[in-house]
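At this stage, I wrote out one protein, both as residues and as discrete backbone shape codes, and that material follows here.
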Amino acid sequence: MHPLRAYIHRFVALTDAEWAPLAAALLPQQLRRKQLFVTQGAPAPALALLVSGACRLFYTRPDGEERTTYFFFENHLLGSYQSCLTGQPSAFGIEALAPTELLTFPFAVLDALCNEFPAYERFCRRLAEYHLLGTDERLAELLLLSPEQRYAKLLGGTKTKILERVSQRYIASYLGITPVSLSRIRARVQASDGPIS
């Protein structure tokens, strides 16, 4: 099965007739390491399936400091939904962390398919629910857990690709701490032979 069709199939099954117009709109795109798929402050009217590689979602503050809030790996759908829905410039950037292969398509195509086929409307609703749950979980982690607890959750959770494939600098940013603080937390974890609770 085509990788994007397989991704959609996690939420809803498409018939060949439903899949064909989206398949016809797909364009492959290669990103070099540090190349942007979405630029903060610019409109971002496309979505993409990440076929291979890795990307990060980040915000740049007015003082120039970057805050990484999410990572994307194989078989993730990525883009600026806020920009797609409103037509406004994206509030964040998405940058390749390694050479990355994407399959891109205009959000306008998906939007039109939602109006034409109930299956796409169900897909978009379920996708929105999936992202809302993820956003709520992420927000709760940042507001309710200490940096040590956030690191322990990362160690004991299902997001092992972050630990395996992302630099310590970006992991620290994702946890909302400095690289020096992350080094100290890691040293305490190693000294105690297990995650900090």
Q: What stands out?
A: The longest helix spans residues 118-144. The chain has a mean pLDDT of 92. Strands lie at 27-31, 36-38, 46-52, 55-60, 66-72, 76-79, 93-96, 100-106. The longest strand covers residues 46-52.
